[in-house]
């Protein structure tokens, strides 16, 4: 089962690289935000898979919860900033 | 950044979510012996919950909950807890922040006294980090100019 | 290998499938709103399926309860952040993409 988790994590890592294309080259600020937000959700699952591979889930689960929390607050902050600024 | 957003969805979700975030921050501070975390990380989560409140509910309501003066008082109070526990160990005849000597006041065995001393220090660190993070965000978001109604 | 560990495999594969679908949508759609539509819906479902699968794999314990707590949090947070970004995009004057009609 560990090798299954490993292959799943490597597939998710490939998807993170594909999303990073949108985060780097995406036209405009908004496309970049969408790409980075998509990377955040995939990283959460990768962290949990790493916890299962290393047999230390109860340690990695706190990290992934904080990661999800900070991703949410960061996205809200950038959206509020762009909304107040009124232009891209 | 400091005006009230006129969006009911974000405000409602934030109002539901903020108490659970703060409860989780207290869990991270208290459970720092056995899991990742501790004073600094829990303080960052606690500060992030206040930042979320400021973002969604505007400056006026956030100043009722946590004003600039309260943030300054809390940051000083956390440093006072930290250095107070350290100096207490120094007064009792041991090194700075050597919690073993606290067992004479707390009437427990030295190992438990060390655990309790570390817990007290981490509470102080958490309070300081929370207040300083909120204060930094407060200053950045208002551009350094506070509105006039500061008592 | 126990029965609940085998039962977690379809959930994980389903989550991975929706991650792939969301990423293809993010890369291939023509417009910002379409891309946000793909990631906002697809990633939410994929995270939910993956976390439920991992929780089933773990069994009944405090850890699986915490994983379900993360799932509830993501179920609330992900649509809210998507809504916030799209609202900011509308306020910034982004025009939706329309197909060019040849008349």
Main sheet summary of chain B: none
How would you describe the shape of chain B? Answer: elongated
| Secondary structure tally: strands of chain C | 0
Distance between the termini of chain B: 22 Å
Helicity level of chain B? over 70%
* Number of domains as seen in the coordinates of chain C: 1
Which structural class matches the secondary elements of chain B?
A: mainly alpha
The coarse overall form of chain C would be elongated
Percentage of residues in strands of chain C = under 5%
Radius of gyration of chain C: 18 Å
Domain count of chain B: the total is 1
The share of residues in helices of chain C is: over 70%
Poorly predicted parts of chain B: none
What's the helix-strand series of chain C? HHH
Number of strands of chain B: 0
Structure, explained:
The complex is a heterotrimer of chains A (88), B (151) and C (103). Chain A is mainly α and 88 residues long. Chain A has helices at residues 2-25, 29-53, 57-85. Helix content of chain A is 89%, strand content 0%. Chain A contains three helices and no strands. In chain A, 47% of the residues are buried. In chain A, helix 1 (2-25) runs antiparallel to helix 2 (29-53) and helix 2 (29-53) packs antiparallel against helix 3 (57-85). The N and C termini of chain A lie far apart (47 Å). Chain B has helices spanning 8-30, 39-65, 68-91, 103-106, 110-141. Helices cover 73% and strands 0% of the residues of chain B. The model of chain B has no long low-confidence stretch (mean pLDDT 84). Chain C is mainly α. Chain C has one domain. Chain C has helices spanning 3-28, 32-58, 62-91. Chain C starts with a helix and ends in a 12-residue tail after the last helix. The chains are: A mainly alpha (88), B mainly alpha (151), C mainly alpha (103). Chains in contact: A-B, A-C, B-C. The A-B interface holds A 58-59, 62-63, 65-66, 69-70, 73, 76-77, 80-81, 83-84 and B 1, 3, 5, 10, 21, 24, 28, 35-37, 41, 45, 48, 51-52, 55-56.
């Amino acid at each position: 089962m560990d090798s299954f988790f490993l292959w799943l994590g490597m597939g998710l890592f490939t998807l993170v690289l594909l999303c990073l294309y949108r985060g780097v080259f995406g036209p405009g600020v908004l496309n970049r935000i969408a790409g980075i937000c998509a990377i955040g959700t995939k990283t959460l699952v990768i962290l949990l898979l790493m916890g299962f591979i290393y047999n230390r889930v109860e340690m990695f689960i706190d990290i992934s919860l904080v990661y999800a929390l900070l991703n949410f607050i960061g996205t809200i902050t950038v959206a509020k900033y762009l909304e107040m600024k009124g232009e891209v | 950044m400091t005006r009230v957003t006129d969006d009911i969805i974000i405000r409602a979700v934030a109002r539901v979510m903020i108490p659970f975030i703060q409860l989780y921050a207290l869990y991270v501070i208290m459970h720092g012996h056995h899991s990742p975390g501790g004073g600094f990380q829990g303080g960052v989560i606690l500060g992030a919950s206040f930042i979320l409140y400021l973002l969604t509910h505007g400056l006026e309501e956030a100043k009722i909950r946590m004003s600039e003066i309260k943030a300054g008082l809390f940051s000083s109070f956390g440093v006072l807890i930290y250095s107070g526990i350290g100096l207490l160990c120094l007064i009792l005849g041991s090194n700075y922040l050597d919690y073993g000597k606290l067992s004479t006041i707390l009437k427990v065995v030295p190992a438990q006294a060390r655990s309790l001393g570390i817990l007290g220090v981490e509470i102080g660190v958490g309070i300081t980090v929370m207040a300083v993070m909120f204060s930094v965000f407060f200053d950045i978001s208002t551009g350094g100019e506070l509105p006039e109604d500061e008592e | 290998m126990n029965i609940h560990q085998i039962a977690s495999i379809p959930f994980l594969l389903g989550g991975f499938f929706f991650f792939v679908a969301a990423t293809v949508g993010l890369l291939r759609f023509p417009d910002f709103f379409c891309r946000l539509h793909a990631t906002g819906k697809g990633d939410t479902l994929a995270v939910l399926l993956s976390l439920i699968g991992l929780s089933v794999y773990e069994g009944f314990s405090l850890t699986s309860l915490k994983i379900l707590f993360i799932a509830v949090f993501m179920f609330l947070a992900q649509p809210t952040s998507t809504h916030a970004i799209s609202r900011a995009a509308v306020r910034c004057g982004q025009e939706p993409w329309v197909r060019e009609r040849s008349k």
